[in-house]
From TrEMBL:
<feature type="binding site">
    <location>
        <position position="80"/>
    </location>
    <ligand>
        <name>substrate</name>
    </ligand>
</feature>
<keyword id="KW-0460">Magnesium</keyword>
<protein>
    <recommendedName>
        <fullName>Putative 4-hydroxy-4-methyl-2-oxoglutarate aldolase</fullName>
    </recommendedName>
</protein>
<dbReference type="Pfam" id="PF03737">
    <property type="entry name" value="RraA-like"/>
</dbReference>
<dbReference type="InterPro" id="IPR005493">
    <property type="entry name" value="RraA/RraA-like"/>
</dbReference>
<dbReference type="GO" id="GO:0046872">
    <property type="term" value="F:metal ion binding"/>
</dbReference>
<feature type="binding site">
    <location>
        <position position="81"/>
    </location>
    <ligand>
        <name>Mg(2+)</name>
    </ligand>
</feature>
<keyword id="KW-0479">Metal-binding</keyword>
<feature type="binding site">
    <location>
        <begin position="58"/>
        <end position="61"/>
    </location>
    <ligand>
        <name>substrate</name>
    </ligand>
</feature>
<dbReference type="InterPro" id="IPR036704">
    <property type="entry name" value="RraA/RraA-like_sf"/>
</dbReference>
């Protein structure tokens, strides 16, 4: 996903199945409905139309999510109660913060594809997020992606071991041939 999303606290990570939803800016009824509908392991992927004018998600909703086994929340909008959410340890990635509350009138759309960060998020997509990026995978690609990630981790572990033994990155990567300077 394109940049602009930030974890609320250092070290926040999440992984799970996408439950996309669209909230009308200034209204959070769809979030309440999605929390009630979500299954353990779901990640709420909230299309808030990029609005930072209110914070539709806060501490009470984070606790409700945590108690239901929801894996986290990603929103192109703002959230509130950031310190309290961080203290709960509930993973939230947002584009901003805003203490202003919202109405509860519009049911929004839940469980249909939405656009976040320049990509379409479909129900059941795999969401993985940390401080560096938010990645989306089609569920059918999960096994191949996991195998590739494990292979890369093994290669990097070997490289780090070789560095600890005194080699340089130039020699490990074969970049020292030909006296490059």
């Amino acid at each position: 996903m394109a940049g602009g999303f930030q974890p609320l606290a250092t070290g926040m990570t999440l992984a799970g199945r996408a439950l996309p939803l669209r909230c009308r800016p200034g209204d959070n009824l769809a979030l309440h409905l999605a929390i009630a509908e979500a299954r353990p392991g779901d990640v709420l992927m909230v299309d808030y139309s990029g609005s930072l004018d209110s914070g539709p998600f806060g501490e009470i909703m984070a606790l409700a999510c945590q108690l239901r086994g929801i894996a986290g929340l990603v929103t192109d909008g703002a959230v509130r109660d950031s310190a309290q959410i961080a203290a709960l340890g509930f993973p939230v990635f947002a584009r901003g913060l805003n203490i202003r509350g919202t109405q509860k009138l519009d049911r929004g759309v839940i469980g249909q594809p939405v656009s976040l960060g320049g990509v379409t998020v479909a129900p059941g997509d795999i969401v993985i997020a940390d401080a560096d990026a938010i990645l989306l995978l089609d569920a059918a690609d999960l096994d191949a992606a996991l195998a590739a990630a494990q292979a890369r981790a093994r290669r990097e572990a070997v490289m780090m071991d070789r560095l600890r033994k005194g080699e340089t990155t130039l020699s490990i990567l074969g970049l020292d041939g030909g006296n490059r300077t």
